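Quick question about two entries, pasted in order.
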Amino acid sequence: GVFLASDVSASKELQGHDIPLGVDARWQYTQFAEVLPPGILLLATDGLWEAMDSGKAMFGKERVNTLLAANAHAGPQQIVDEIFKEVKAFTATAEVEDDRTVVIVRLDQD
C-alpha cells in the first residue's frame, strides 16, 4: 500500500511481511499499528503495478504514486476510476494476467 499526506508533501510505502490474505487460513499474521496523519491510503493487489503492456513493460509503482498525487484532491471513487482508466490505456490489448484490486481510504483529522 501507499500513504500520501493530505498536502502531498510526503508519501510512504506500506508493506507487510506475511503471506497474502487468503492463502492459508491457519497463518498467524504479524500485527502492526501506526498512526497516520490526514491523507490518502491506497491498498492494492500486485496485479495493479505489475499490469503489462504488449511489450511486457510493467505499469509500475511510480505511475501509481504519480496518479495518486495528481488526483489527491478527488474523492476515493474518482481516484480508483482514474487509476483503472490509466492502467487500461497502458495495457491496451495486452492479456490480463493477474487480478487488479484497489481500495482508496481518505483519512481525515478528528
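Here is the second entry:
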Amino acid sequence: GGSQVITNSGDIAATAIFTIHGPITNPSVNNTTTGKSFVINTTIAAGNYVIVYQNTNGFFVLLNGTTNYYQYFTGTFFDIVVGMNNIVFTGAASTGATLGMEFSNYYLGL
C-alpha cells in the first residue's frame, strides 16, 4: 500500500489503466482528490494481477489479463483529473503488492 501524487498535465481528464499485483486481499484504489474509489473484493495471490480499465469496447476487470473478475469490483472507476491527483492504494495481507497506473495527457485542439 501507499500513496502517490499523479499529475495530469493535459487539458482534459484521462482514462487510466490500473494493474494490481498480488499478494493482496481486498485492494482499494482511492483518488482522494476527487473522492472516488474502487475495491476488488477478493484475494489476488502472489504472482497474479488484476487489470482494471475502460475503453471504447467497455469496462474490464481481468485476472491475469484474461479471466473476468468484474463480479469482485465495487465502487466507482475514475479518470485522472487535470492537475494533481492523490492516489491511495491499500489492502490486507499486502506485503509485496503493487499498483501500476498508465495514462496519457490529453490536450484539446482544433
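Reply: The mean pLDDT is 96. The CA atoms of residues 20 and 99 lie 5 Å apart. Hope that helps.
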